[in-house]
Amino acid sequence: MKTAVPGPESKAILQRLSQYQDTRSVFFVADFEKSKGNYIVDADGNTMLDVFAQIASIPVGYNNPAFLALAKDPAFQTALANRAALGVNPNKDWVDQVEKAFMRVAPKGLDQVFTVMCGSCANENAFKTAFMYKAAKLRGDAEFTMDELNSCMNNQAPGSPDLSILSFSQAFHGRLFGSLTATASKAIHKIDIPAFNWPKAPFPLLKYPLDEHQDYNRSVEQQSLQAVEQLIKENKQPVAAVVVEPIQSEGGDNHASPSYFRQLQAICKKHDVLFIVDEVQTGVGGTGTFWAHEAWDLPESPDMVTFSKKFQAAGFFLNSRLRPTQPYRLYNTWMGDPVRAMQAAAIINEVESKDLLTNVKQVGGYLQSQLPTLPTLANVRGQGAFIAFDLVDGAHRDKLLTDMRQRGVNVGGCGDRTVRLRPMLTFQQHHADIFLNTLEDALKLQQ
Q: Is this structure's pTM higher than 0.85?
């Protein structure tokens, strides 16, 4: 560490940038050319262990050689120089990229993929798919009527039906209109933005340690499930789908048991409501399995699984029965990006060739065993290396994050009092020790 964070060079760049863009959310300015592996370098030359990883979106380290090698691949260069509108003119190798990058790791039973540009886009299009499926069922899978075709142009029923997506308290699904309606993690995300009148069920807030609160946790999970079923039965706008995160990330890293999610899927199936799993933040290995929902041991796949972040590409997997009957209904100009698909394939190669899921389980287990020994921490929880803890005095959380950066560790927060760890899949035990030692020193200042 050479300067405070942010240092004078970061501050100078931010002062220039703030003339054109809002920089109030920026922690520091990065120098990605000098960053490597699990370490991020800032504009002032400070080198920090990065346990936040661009909001959980860097999978295999900065300047990974496999990524840099892609730049020399003629196919990558062609995709970079000639960006395709994939819905009308995909390149001849696009189907190869779909198979290498997406279908290779598709959740079992989901044989379709729709690619888009970001996690919010993925969820928005999954919601659209659910609405199209539900509307088709309600009309008996018949052709559109003229009344439907005309009324939708005025945003009125029956062509614009009053359907809904059921989500949960504390959820985060994105910042576009549908995804923002389904979001409930922070008021600042939603304030002043018109929203749809969609239902929200309470997500179970478990008590820790889990083995000391089994009866309570079963009770709150059952209360949540009962609320879901009641809303599906009674909501004025028919529920087309339930969307849920395997771990509520922005809302405070809230977990539920595998049994809870199995019962949630069963409720959806019972009422012919689609079950959407939002794996934008949890997908691609951070929890120790490629998809977090693999740990639930579901009797059958979710109806849709959305992804982005660590995959360096975005979209959602779905079953062929959900593919719209007519063309152009799931559609936009880019419909994803071949460049990002090639990066996604490289990520899978790295995960498999270096056995990174085993590494995540081992290092995550080590962190989860050591964190409870530190003072003033509470509610240590996690799945693999997707870990969080609360501060006993939550008012000190933001100061702790700042103090950690001054000591060379970049880490993030979520919820009101939670510190979340989002290390890369290449995070090793010696990195974990650096984090733990730095955290212990920073916590001493809080006492």
A: yes
